[in-house]
Specification:
Length: 227
């Protein structure tokens, strides 16, 4: 992809992650002091749309990234995020008071759900499933649509089966599965990790979740449960 197009795609995705709203050409030019006109940005939008990286959800609206756009971003554009002191301290506090691995994992999952403002899931053994932060997930703009809430509720109802299948796969490093690849639903994104004794840990959010933050949280969690 040409550099000017990848730059615009990254800006669209960064904005979509923050707001959940379509991104317009005028707002990009003004917010980031781009040295091109809104008309030029709209031409870039057209090229990205024709290639399947962004879409226009409504006539006269801005653009949103597609699954293809997010995957390109994850593979080529996303930069690691350094956790804040608050994030680091809260994870350390969550890990400090629990001695058993499974209790520590659940405490860390709860802390990650609050820090990421998404949901966390944990699968332990063959039957024990734990999830937290669902109110964070349902508060996201994407899930104001009742049909989407019903869809993800169906998945939560069979969470044991979903986690049971995932436990047969090892995720030695934080691994992103989004859209059509996400086991929790095509409108979602997830970051998964295999923890102690084969337990599965994941952060679950909308497809536009902040993957850079989620991956950094999971890497820090892995350090805490390994040590």
């Amino acid at each position: 992809m040409e550099e000017h197009l990848s730059q615009i795609l990254k800006l669209v995705i960064d904005q979509a992650i923050q707001t959940g709203e379509p991104v317009g050409s005028q707002s990009l030019v003004e917010q980031f002091d781009l040295k091109v006109s809104p008309a030029t940005v709209r031409n870039y939008f057209m090229e990205l749309e024709e290639s399947g990286f962004i879409m226009q959800p409504h006539t006269s609206s801005g653009r949103l990234p597609t699954e293809k756009g997010y995957k390109f971003y994850l593979q080529n554009l996303m930069k690691p995020k350094t956790l804040s002191k608050k994030e680091t301290n809260e994870l350390a506090e969550a890990a400090k008071f629990e001695k058993e691995d499974h209790h520590r994992v659940k405490a860390l999952a709860k802390a990650m759900a609050e820090l990421a403002q998404n949901a966390s899931v944990v699968g332990i053994g063959s039957m024990d499933s734990y999830y937290t932060g669902l109110s964070n997930l349902f508060a996201q703009p994407e899930f104001k649509d009742w049909n989407r809430i019903v869809s993800i509720s169906d998945i939560l109802d069979r969470m044991d089966d979903v986690l049971g299948k995932l436990r047969h796969v090892r995720f030695d490093e934080p691994t992103t599965l989004i859209g059509s690849e996400c086991p929790f639903g095509s409108m979602c994104g997830s970051v998964l990790l295999t923890g102690p004794q084969g337990c599965l840990i994941g952060i679950l959010g909308p497809m536009r979740m902040d993957y850079s933050q989620a991956v950094s949280l999971m890497k820090r969690m892995k350090q805490l449960i390994t040590n």
